[in-house]
Amino acid sequence: MVDINKIMRDGKCMLLAYDQGLEHGPTDFNDENVDPNYILEIAEKTQVYTGIVFQEGIAEKYYPSASSGQVPPLILKLNGKTGFHKGEEPLSLQLTSVDQAVRLGAVGVGYTIYVGSEHEQQMMVEFRRICDEAHQKDLIVIAWMYPRGKHVEGKENSKDVLAYAARISLELGADFTKIAYSGDPESFSWVVKNAGASKVLVQGGAKKDEAELLDEVKDFMQVEATGLAVGRNIWQASDPISISLKLAKIIFNT
Ligand code: FBP
Description:
The chain has ten helices and ten strands. It is of the alpha/beta class. The strands form two sheets. An eight-stranded parallel barrel has the order 1-2-3-6-7-8-9-10, surrounded by five helices. It has a two-stranded antiparallel sheet with strand order 4-5. Helix 6 packs parallel to helix 7 (185-195) and helix 8 (210-222) packs parallel to helix 10 (240-251).
């Protein structure tokens, strides 16, 4: 069995995500956070992140240079798509390999499945194969479970669709399920129950008001979520250190 504790502290998890340059493009960035070193510095200064998520190019060119310092364990995102295809049925295919994740020193891999997309089956098949290979090589597997596409249109954040997505993640073998918050603890508790032994991480989403983010995290941590995978709400913040520490206090209950 793969050791999921490699990306947990006291049974909780806080991941810093930085794959948005591929997913969204430079629109998310400013002069500071366009530099991957800025993200690594946030992780080094705060020491609260239990993992950091990069695509291959950034991992290869930036992560090793920081490995002398105290950077969080690497999670390599294996698939991805660009933001040029708005309105199309989402499809995100494998861009790099489990072997490459091992070579780069990653402890885990990430893969997005667009549940409800016309192409969902293709992603599930690819994910399953990746899951087997990653587990054979002792890597943790995190499924980004995103309901998207015409079959779930308007229901992307609904209790039933998120619970279904969480269940698919468990059935496919993901160690962690990264998923949107349904908006209230009661409905989210059903999502967490459906994920079963697959640990639930809530995705951060677009930058929001700090108080709103902190309240939301308090809410879902109450119902046994394992933590948060967050990007823009940290590195787009005017004080990324302060917000990281506040989130860590809630997540690790310190
Ligand atoms: P954020 O906290 O910035 O939303 O990052 C989490 C994440 O899952 C990233 O890994 C990914 O790039 C992004 O969200 C995808 O967001 P979306 O599909 O909503 O555009």
